[in-house]
């Protein structure tokens, strides 16, 4: 079960960082060359990285970090990811705007070293990760991925809160913000509702959020 914990927690963390660095600040883009629309193609690249590549890497990393010297495994995985990023650049699947591969290597080194500090806790579950954090990350992961597919890729809807100038950044931040709200409300409701009626939280909350979203869409939000 530790794989599920690591997957959901890492997805939550890297997704927020990726959205800020990629969509808001525009440091780099992922031209996957799989879709005609460059903006949608970039979001597809983000979803590949955040929902598949990096969470799976986190699972492998935590396994070795729990058995090896933390600095050694940090150096090894930083080197590997730096090499892969160089390949992505060479093949045209990654482009820099206000970024540099050495910045990425620095981010990898910091991120892996911090993760190495928690690897034993995730693998051996000692001390255990608080249930509220696990549940929050799980709910966020599900809602963020579903929202990304339905909204950003299939384009069934688009959020327009008007917070950011870039349309895709505006849409994704609103969608991820909604994921945070849903996850937070679920945690709060589960804490105050009697265990016998907690199952209704997972029924009532999605219905209410769907109704809220429908009303906003009708108003053009």
User: How many β-strand stretches?
Assistant: 2
Q: CA-to-CA gap between the ends?
A: 39 Å
SS strand fraction: under 5%
**What is the arithmetic mean of pLDDT?**
81
Order of strands across the biggest sheet? 1-2
- The structural domain count equals 2
The helix count comes to 7
Gyration radius from CA atoms, angstroms: 19 Å
Q: Strand pairing plus helix content: what structural class? A: mainly alpha
SSE run: HEHHEHHHH
Helical content stands at: over 70%
| Residue runs with pLDDT of under 50 for 5 or more positions | none
Assembly category: single chain
Biggest pleated-sheet summary: 2 strands, antiparallel
Q: What is the 3D form?
A: flat
Description:
The protein folds into 2 domains: 2-124, no CATH class; 131-218, no CATH class. The protein is 74% helix and 2% strand. The protein has 7 helices and 2 strands. The protein has helices at 2-24, 38-65, 70-91, 101-124, 131-153, 167-192, 201-218, and strands spanning 28-29, 95-96. The longest helix has 28 residues, at 38-65. It is flat and about 55 Å long. The mean pLDDT is 81.
Describe this structure in a few short sentences:
This protein has 221 residues and is mainly alpha-helical. The chain contains 7 helices and 2 strands, in the order αβααβαααα.
Topology:
Blueprint: H1 2-24, E1 28-29, H2 38-65, H3 70-91, E2 95-96, H4 101-124, H5 131-153, H6 167-192, H7 201-218
Antiparallel strand pairs: 1-2
Helix pairs in contact: 1-2, 1-5, 1-6, 2-4, 2-5, 3-4, 5-6, 6-7
Transmembrane segments: 7-28, 43-64, 71-89, 101-123, 135-156, 176-193, 200-217
Keywords: Membrane, Transmembrane, Transmembrane helix
